[in-house]
């Protein structure tokens, strides 16, 4: 359990900083305009830049949605809702990045509607442009059991990096886009997020970015001439290899398959795979958001081990892993989810494993 002790030591060392960061986040969230600015990013159009030093785990922005859409909505009806927005909001939305120029649509529209007047033609062109902007910029947000595509006037200006310095985190039911620093960010530094699955191999990342957004990422993870690129590629390959070697034990959610059917020796091997995955994920700030899933899976394995032999050290290991899960949930998933595991923690501290 030396690996757990090292992680917990790091967590406890940063806990006071975490409290500071949370209070700083609340403060920053209220005065977001003083924390970042939107200006030109070389070679990328507009981007978002920090105007002051921002500590890790601080909220950088809490951006309310400017326009919300959902799959299957009639395009004309969507445009009708759009033109009901305040003029300034509409203008700002139409200034967001486009995958195509409106000139690309004109031959199609003019050929199909040759006799329509100028106003009708321009309305149809705006429908095309709005759809392009939504496809290029919208964030997917979960609302209960429905996914919506939403535009945020500040959030949609954040440029991509495969090793971003902010993560999108739980909005606690507000509907806002909440971006939180995953490392310390210096004043003047560009704020970046990831448009894709950042743990995918470089070739897949480049193909997806080029296919949908039309650019080749040149972040340190993608620039083959950068000294960071090779070790990060090896890190991702090692993560994939460990995952593939453990699929017989773990489900798609990272949790133990068929609990109660494994031998203690088999569970020890799964524990080792979780340990190696955790060490790799905690090596770089851009991967730490995935640790919650690993901690939770390792917790289930530790409980399974305890049920087999009733060894007190296995229960202690489970408690430490649940503590790490709760800390990760507070950062990325919100207090409501963390609270349910806090109740479980209190129960396990008393040695009660019923229902686990």
UniProtKB/TrEMBL annotation:
Superkingdom assignment: Eukaryota
UniProt-listed CDD domains: SET_SMYD (cd20071)
One Pfam family per UniProt: SET
Record domain SET: where: 34-196
PROSITE patterns: SET (PS50280)
PANTHER family per the UniProt record, alphabetical: SET DOMAIN-CONTAINING PROTEIN 5 (PTHR47332)
Name of this protein: SET domain-containing protein
Protein's organism: Dichotomopilus funicola
Upper classification of the organism: Eukaryota, Fungi, Dikarya, Ascomycota, Pezizomycotina
